[in-house]
Amino acid sequence: MAAILFAGLAPGAVADDQPTVYSGATLFDGTGRPPIENAYVVVGDGRILAVGDADMVPSPDGAAHVDISGKWLIPGLIDAHVHLFQSGGLYTRPDVVDLRHVLPYEQEMAAIRVTLDATLARTFAAGITGVVDFGGPDWLYALRERAEHNAVSPRIALAGQLIATWSPRQLAIDPAPIKLVATPSEAREAIRRQAERKPDLIKIWFVRARGDQDFETAQAWVSAAIDEAHKLGLRAAVHATEHETAVAALAAGADVLVHSVDDQMVTDAFLLAMHERNAIYIPTLGVYDGYWRVLRQYLRLTENERRLGDPRVIESLDDLSTLPESDVPSWLTIGRPPPPVNPIMLNNLVRVHDANLVIAAGSDAGNIGTLHGAGFHRELAYMADAGMAPADILVTATMGGAKVMGRADEIGSIEPGKRADFVVLDADPLADIRNASRVSLVVKDGTARDPDEVLAGLALQE
Ligand SMILES: [Zn+2]
């Protein structure tokens, strides 16, 4: 339908001078306010100019009208946890399943780099207008610049290299996704060097019993890294999946936790520390399930994943079934259903939500079995399984992500003055969060695209 609506507008053209009025849809503006039925949204110069009830639609001179009656309009989705240096395919994490004898890691990385723009377009076609890359090589900085003004790409916020005391040897590649540090002073030095490249935040890997460090030693360098980041005006995001490391990270000043606490129910002390720091919790519920579904060859891909996913990546997900037995690590138990998502993670999400803390939805896309773009919709479904209401999930998937990006004053909700980044849906996401994947139009900076046309354009290039 977008082809008809936008007849006369050249593909990719920015309707700059002439305002456009979108009217008739049910508007969920992302602020937490109740939806407005039969709403209008006026867009001009890439911004939201006005929002209101369609009975009183203003008609700016020369405005184009787009009738989206019967549809739903929501802010552009933001996946607050991705890794663009990983494809989501079978060969992308040789430290987890080492198949470098089948496909060398250098070859996997080369394929990822030549398809980056296509990967971003697939993400965009999923209704995602912003992503946060939480750790990867320095070439991501140039990609961030390019993506900002690309009409079929989400905006990118990034953390740059992961700061860690441990790096899997199988991931050794140049340029490196991980920056190794051993001491507090090395951590400070690494943060200072990273700050020169202007990351949006810093990402720290706080993993117990790795890099042969005891807890106190690890705590010392993590604290130094966060302190140095704050001195330089940068927020610090921490990978800390145990309660003990998460609490220690918060005590050291962490601004974002990029994973659920998964070893015990979070305590009141944890919730209080989150509250005092106004820290953001990214539950990242589905990433382990993605690994299990591939490693046990129990994929059950959704139609959405097959439609949006990179064909090369999707093809690789079946490879464990077709490789000669001698090529497949013997610890894999092919064909067994994956274990259910850890109920502690699900219950902790509810606890964090009930405590009114800030939550952002993030998929960890790029990890094996978690596809860029489509994988985010699977994550939203897990959040619903945990017991969150669709309206609350949508806020985490829009404003929550904008907060992680550090751009909440600019994107994340449909309000006058903000950038015109939004999605038109064919079905009600408040009735079922899975309907957020039924994307009819994706709008960035006021330029509308039909996801089917974006995908068709990619197919032509292949
Ligand atoms: Zn991650």
Structural notes for this entry:
With 462 residues, the protein is an alpha/beta fold. The chain has two domains: 2-76 and 413-461, Urease, subunit C, domain 1 (Roll); 77-289 and 336-405, Metal-dependent hydrolases (TIM Barrel), CATH 3.20.20. Helix content is 34%, strand content 18%. It has helices at 2-5, 105-114, 116-125, 140-148, 184-195, 215-231, 243-251, 268-277, 287-295, 303-308, 311-317, 319-322, 343-354, 374-386, 390-405, 451-461, and strands at 20-27, 36-44, 47-53, 64-67, 72-75, 77-82, 128-133, 155-158, 162-164, 178-180, 201-205, 235-239, 256-257, 280-281, 358-359, 422-425, 439-444, 447-449. Strands 1, 2, 3, 4, 5, 16, 17 and 18 form an eight-stranded mixed β-sheet that branches. Helix 7 links the parallel strand 12 (235-239) and strand 13. The chain starts with a helix and ends with a helix. Mean pLDDT is 92; it is low at 1-15. Zinc ion binds next to loops.
Structure keywords:
single chain; 462 residues; alpha/beta; Urease, subunit C, domain 1; TIM Barrel; 2 domains; 34% helix; disordered N terminus; binds zinc ion
Secondary structure layout:
Layout: H1 2-5, E1 20-27, E2 36-44, E3 47-53, E4 64-67, E5 72-75, E6 77-82, H2 105-114, H3 116-125, E7 128-133, H4 140-148, E8 155-158, E9 162-164, E10 178-180, H5 184-195, E11 201-205, H6 215-231, E12 235-239, H7 243-251, E13 256-257, H8 268-277, E14 280-281, H9 287-295, H10 303-308, H11 311-317, H12 319-322, H13 343-354, E15 358-359, H14 374-386, H15 390-405, E16 422-425, E17 439-444, E18 447-449, H16 451-461
Helix pairs in contact: 3-16, 5-6, 7-8, 13-14
Bound molecules: zinc ion.
Zinc ion binds next to loops.
